[in-house]
């Protein structure tokens, strides 16, 4: 099997890598985080319009390049290398993915807006009382004439302060935790009845607590597919953050190796100490495994549901463990300054720590893999 990237994919990687090298140095990123909006909106617009990268994973009939999950993986790995705070995951992978799979008039209207950079989508699915069960939903969407009335609360909605649209999971029927009755809606973020409490997250993004109080939404806001669609989109998002983890792990490794070459003890660089040379070798192996598992899981996204879920859970569990190993050893090698805001390594470690639990912890995915691989 040929696992090398084709010419177009290589060009996409090089284009984004060069752009991020010019715009996302550590000091520039810190200035973005300190700004009132928590980002530079011009960067996202440039990625969409000047570079034209947001079209990569979409079909040609929507104005895209005909790519898919591999293109998203390439982009997310490059974003991970600089811990970029751009809403690619929320808008392109999750929002765009849901629209691609659901199809219909809403996809026809919204995907071109994503490609142009005019639409930013935030995924409102997590609830305070829920954990990783995507069917554990208290938010309701009750039928009202030709539309619905939305009520509920979604927590830690990444990119919501910037969003033009919200992709919301809600229950139209059934009891709590029932798979039947769980649906997905795409609505404008400025609809009457929607309120937000915005805050920065520990890994540098902006998120919100989003409240829906008698929000009237049209019937065409419903994306067909129900819980199966939601699970597929979340699996795709899980592999996207695994790809991001690959970029983070490689950057933490490179920064740590460089630090050991500069830091001196007993008159010589600490890189010459055998114990640290062994540590760097172990970190390299784990970083390579993150990349390999991210690719393996991504290649399995088009398998049947059971095979896809098993592959994604296997990948996420291994990525979580390997990323933790690389991050902890990077911090230990740097010493106390490694967890301060002064060095980039601490920021990478924070984002890596959040990825470990994003879309399911190590234990959650081990349990899911066991249930799929060894059904009772």
Please specify the SSE layout and strand pairing.
Layout: H1 7-23, H2 26-34, H3 41-50, H4 69-81, H5 88-102, H6 105-116, E1 121-124, E2 140-144, E3 147-158, E4 165-171, E5 182-188, E6 194-200, E7 206-217, E8 222-223, H7 226-262, E9 264-265, E10 268-269, H8 274-299, H9 305-334, H10 344-357, H11 362-373
Parallel strand pairs: 1-4
Antiparallel strand pairs: 2-3, 3-7, 4-5, 5-8, 6-7, 9-10
Helix pairs in contact: 1-4, 4-5, 4-7, 5-6, 5-7, 7-8, 7-9, 7-10, 8-9, 9-10, 9-11
- Mean pLDDT, nearest integer? 93
Q: Helix-strand pattern, N to C?
A: HHHHHHEEEEEEEEHEEHHHH
Q: Count of DSSP E strands?
A: 10
Assembly state: single chain
- What's the number of helices? 11
Percentage of residues in DSSP E strands: 15-25%
Which residues form runs of ≥5 with pLDDT under 50?
A: none
* SS content category: alpha+beta
User: Considering DSSP H and I runs of 4 or more, what fraction of the residues is helical?
Assistant: 40-55%
Choose one word for the global shape.
Answer: globular
- Gyration radius (Cα, Å) is 21 Å
Major sheet size, sense and barrel closure: 4 strands, mixed
> What is the spatial order of strands in the main beta sheet?
1-4-5-8
Q: N- to C-terminal separation?
A: 34 Å
């Amino acid at each position: 099997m040929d696992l090398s990237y084709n010419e177009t994919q290589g060009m996409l990687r090089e284009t984004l890598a060069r752009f991020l090298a010019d715009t996302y140095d550590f000091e520039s990123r810190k200035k973005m985080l300190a700004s009132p909006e928590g980002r530079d909106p011009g960067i996202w617009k440039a990625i969409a319009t000047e570079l034209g990268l947001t079209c990569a994973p979409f079909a040609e009939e929507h104005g895209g390049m005909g790519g898919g999950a591999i293109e998203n993986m390439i982009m997310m790995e490059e974003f991970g290398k600089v811990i970029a705070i751009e809403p690619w995951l929320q808008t392109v992978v999750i929002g765009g993915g849901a629209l691609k799979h659901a199809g219909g008039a809403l996809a026809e209207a919204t995907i071109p807006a994503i490609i142009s950079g005019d639409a930013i989508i935030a995924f409102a699915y997590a609830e305070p009382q829920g954990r990783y069960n995507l069917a554990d939903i208290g938010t309701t969407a009750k039928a009202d004439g030709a539309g619905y009335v939305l009520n509920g609360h979604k927590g830690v909605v990444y990119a919501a302060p910037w969003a033009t649209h919200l992709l919301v999971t809600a229950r139209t029927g059934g009891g709590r935790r029932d798979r039947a009755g769980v649906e997905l809606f795409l609505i404008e973020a400025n609809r009457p009845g929607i309120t937000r409490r915005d805050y920065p997250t520990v890994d540098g993004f902006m998120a919100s607590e989003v409240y829906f109080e008698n929000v009237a939404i049209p019937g065409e806001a419903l994306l067909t597919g129900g819980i199966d669609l939601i699970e597929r989109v979340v699996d795709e998002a899980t592999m996207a953050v695994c790809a991001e983890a690959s970029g983070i792990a490689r950057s933490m490794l490179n920064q740590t190796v460089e630090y050991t070459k500069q830091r001196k003890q007993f008159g010589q660089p600490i890189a010459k100490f055998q114990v640290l040379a062994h540590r760097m070798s172990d970190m390299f192996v784990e970083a390579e495994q993150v990349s390999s598992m991210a690719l393996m899981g991504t290649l399995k996204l088009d398998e049947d549901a059971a095979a896809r879920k098993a592959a994604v859970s296997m990948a996420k569990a291994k990525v979580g463990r390997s990323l933790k190993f690389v991050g902890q050893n990077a911090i230990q090698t740097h010493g106390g300054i490694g967890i301060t805001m002064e060095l980039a390594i601490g920021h990478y470690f924070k984002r890596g720590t959040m990825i470990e639990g994003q879309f399911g912890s190590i234990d959650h995915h081990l349990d899911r893999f066991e249930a799929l691989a060894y059904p009772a």
